[in-house]
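I keep forgetting this: the sequence line spells out the residues, with the fold written below as integer tokens. I include a record here:
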Amino acid sequence: MLSCNITHYPIKSKEIARKNNWQVITIKKLANKLNIGETVLRQCSFYNSDAITFYNKSQEKYIIVYDNFIKPKERINWTIAHEIGHIALNHFHELNGPSNENLILFEDEIMELEADYFASQLLASPIILYNININNIQQIEYLCGITSSAANGRLKHLERWKSYNKISEKELKLLELFEPFLNELKTTKNSYISQLFFE
């Protein structure tokens, strides 16, 4: 977030990818480019989840391919953020291609957990949620544009985060970036957002 100069919620993962010159396309578009059917592409061993990222090592290029049938749309945003997590955490430098076949199961699970954590921090950072006095799932869901299931996880994480009593330097910088948004949110009168968070 800091490097992309993101200053408000909800965060659009596709926009982050665009700013970094990472291509984001649907599986339908990829199937058309390859001149094969979507069903065939979905059944390929390398495509058994909501999204996959292809990495061209020689050109240092990334293409995120996501399933255009994912519902709801908030899940698409989370899925793309998850793939961005793999890129930002340099997981592809540990792999040789788009699949995790070179990794033992344990290593693959760790990378997936890391990418999920990255997506959660990107789309609903606890320092921002805390400064808006978030106290329920609906608030997180509405503000961050994530599913209720994801919002539930973020609320639980926020409660744990509050007990740490330690704010990192990165969190302080993020708070600084979001300050105009937070001030606007707090001063907006008679809006649904204002009523949802501050009344």
